[in-house]
Each structure stands twice: as C-alpha cells, then as structure tokens.
Design goal:
conserved putative lor/sdh protein from methanococcus maripaludis s2 fold; 24% helix; 393 residues; alpha+beta; elongated
C-alpha cells in the first residue's frame, strides 16, 4: 500500500531491448542537391561568357584598313575649248541728272508740284518759294534806279545848256563840274541797273523749273521746309539713254578699248543685252589703279531703272583647247590644280595648269588628258598610290 501508483496520464515508453544500439542512432542529412545547382550555375556562366567572347571577336576586322581599297566616286574629264572672260560689276546711271533747288536765295518752300515718276518738260514749274522779301527789295531797287535815271537826265541836260553859253557868262569850271556830275549820275544809274538785275535773278530763283525733258526721280522736301542755296527740292533724271559705268583693273586696260563688244546682265529687270564700250578714261585712278569705263545704252521706253547694278562680261583673246571637269573634283591653289586620277584602281596625285573657271567647271591645260577618271568624291581620304574602288558619278 506504501507503493505509489503511477499517474494514469503519464505514458512511459521504453526502448526495445532486442534492437542493437547502432540501429537507433539519428539519421544523417543529404547534401547532393545544392552542390549540383551550384555546379550548373557555374557552367551556365562560363558558357554565356564564351558565347559573348566569340561574338565580339567575330566582328573584329583582321585586315589592316590601309591595305583595303577605298571607295571613291569618279568623273570623266572631257575635251573642251576655253576663252578667258572678264567680269565686272557696274552701275546704271542716267544720261543727265539735276538736283533742282535755289541757287541765290534762302526761303521757305511754298509749293512742290511734282512727285517721283512724274514726266516733266523743259521749263515746267517744279516748285515755288516764298520770296516776298526778295520781291520787295527788287521793287525798291527799281524805284531807286528810276530816280537816279531822272537825275542823270536832268544833270546831263543842264550840262549841255551850260556848255552852249558864251564863255563870258559861265565859267568853264562850272561847265566841267556839271558834266562830271552828269557822268557820275550815269555811272550810278548803271550800278543800280546791275543791282536790279541781281535782285531780279533772286526773284526768278523763287520759281524752280525743269532744266530738261525728263522724269522726277526723287522729292527731297515738302512745302513748309526752309531751303538754302545748294539745297535740293527734287531730282530730275533723263533715261532716254543710260550709262553703265564701271572701273577695271589696270592690267585689263587694253581689253576694254572703245568699240569692244560686251554682254550686260541687269539685276533689276533680269534682262540680258549686248552693247559696246563707248568711252575709256585715258588715265587710271591714282588711289585704286583702276580705269573708268562707260557703256551707252539707248532706252527710249525708259524701262531700265537708274542707280541699279549691272554685270558686265567680255571675252579676251582667242579660244584655246582645254580639259574640263567639275570644280568640286580639284583643289585650286593659284594657277595650279591638284586632282587624283584613277588608273587600274590606283589613285595618282596629278598637278595641272589652270586656264580658268566658268559656271562651276574648271578648264585646265590639255596635258591632263580628256577621258581621265578624276576623283570627285572621297578625295580627302586619299594619298598618292592608294588602291580604290571607283563608281561613276
């Protein structure tokens, strides 16, 4: 009864006595799965690196660039003739031009009767000035001249009567005095008449008239402006004949002799015409060493605007044989032309003699044979003797 009875909730498990001790040791963990995954990842990285290396090394050019032919574009030179041409820039000027304004008086402008483009005849009134002061002075001088004229007539008559009297009744000294007084009055009258003529010119200067048949090219002032001698109120031009003027270098003096035919292009109307040189100055300008040339062009329809630009061209010498090709295919240095000529797929540097250039075409000495293949594009990458693969332009 003293023995304690077991707790009915406590479960006691005793190991079996018939199983060896080694059989009941705990199981070991297996490590084969993670190792396989690591080795597979390493293999994948190595394979990817190998593929990338092969791809990169496959795009590398193993051939030196200098040994590979260079692609260029060529153009065939052609046979031509070249005649030297001189080109100048000239100005179209009117045959006659006048700036109309007062010459003697300073006054306010009363009226201006013309506008640019108006046709005027010689003697037509262009403008008038407010010259009331000059008119008053002219009338005063005229009255003074009339008074002096009357005094001179009276003095001359008295001197004539005294000289006809008997010397017993009048002294010769008195006669001489009267005659001198009459001569003085006559001289004073002439001076007054000259002064009157000057004042009349001032009055006439208040009415400004056209000096020739022409057109009004410009109107400088409007009514109310104050003008002085030398001021221009309007400008008149005559365009029935225009003058094309230019200055040429002294080395071209013999090429622009009077009578030489020239070609003229007018920038204002885009018209082309032919003419002949009319005048050549016998001396050059000391400062610029250029000679003045004038070309007269008849224009009865007055279609050519003046003070515009004209391009003048004339041929010099006789035509000569030449070889021609585009200017883009060469490097020009002075009178020398540097080109690359392709022969048997090899580019050779050639130097030619320049004859001239016209409209983007170079003309060189025919020593550079016609038909030669000249590099027009890609010449900047070439050296003498480079191999090329050419294509026609």
């Amino acid at each position: 009864m003293n023995e304690t009875s077991p707790d009915p909730l406590e479960l006691v498990i005793e190991p079996p006595t018939d199983v060896p001790h080694a059989a009941v040791s705990p199981p070991r963990k297996r490590l084969g799965g993670p190792l396989v995954l690591m080795l597979a990842g390493i293999a994948l990285v190595l394979a990817l690196g190998g593929w990338l290396y092969a791809r990169a090394s496959g795009g590398v050019n193993k051939v030196a660039l200098d040994s590979a032919p260079k692609g260029v574009t060529v153009v065939a030179a052609r046979a031509a003739t070249y005649q030297p041409t001189r080109r100048y820039v000239g100005t179209v000027e009117p045959w006659v031009q006048a700036k109309i304004g007062p010459q003697l008086v300073a006054a306010y402008v009363d009226t201006v009767l013309v506008r640019p483009g108006a046709l005027v005849k010689r003697g037509d009134v262009i403008a008038t000035l407010d010259c009331r002061n000059a008119d008053a002075i002219s009338r005063a001088i005229a009255m003074q001249a009339r008074a002096v004229s009357a005094q001179q007539v009276a003095t001359a008559s008295e001197a004539a009567r005294m000289s006809s009297l008997d010397p017993k009744f009048v002294a010769q000294q008195d006669v001489d005095q009267k005659q001198a007084d009459a001569a003085s009055k006559a001289a004073q009258l002439q001076a007054m008449q000259a002064q009157l003529a000057g004042s009349s010119l001032q009055v006439s200067d208040c009415v400004l008239r056209a000096p020739f048949d022409g057109e009004i090219g410009d109107r400088q002032v409007d009514p109310g402006a104050f003008v002085r001698p030398g001021s221009a109120i309007a400008t008149e031009v005559d365009r029935h004949t225009v003058r094309i003027v230019t200055d040429v270098p002294e080395q071209d003096f013999s090429a622009v002799a009077p009578g030489t035919p020239v070609r003229v292009h007018l920038l204002s109307t885009r018209a082309d015409l032919t003419a002949k040189i009319s005048r050549l100055a016998p001396s050059a300008d000391p400062g610029t060493r250029t000679a003045h040339v004038e070309i007269d062009v008849d224009d009865p329809q007055r279609s050519i605007p003046v003070w515009t630009t004209a391009e003048i061209a004339l041929d010099v010498g006789a035509p000569a044989p030449a070889t021609a090709f585009p200017v883009s295919a060469a490097l020009v240095r002075g009178a020398k032309v540097n080109v690359f000529v392709v022969t048997d797929h090899v580019a050779h540097a050639v130097v030619g003699k320049l004859l001239g250039e016209h409209d983007g075409v170079l003309y060189v000495d025919p020593a550079l044979a016609a038909g030669s293949l000249i590099v027009s594009e890609g010449r900047g990458q070439l050296d003498d003797g480079d191999r090329v693969t050419e294509s026609a332009r």
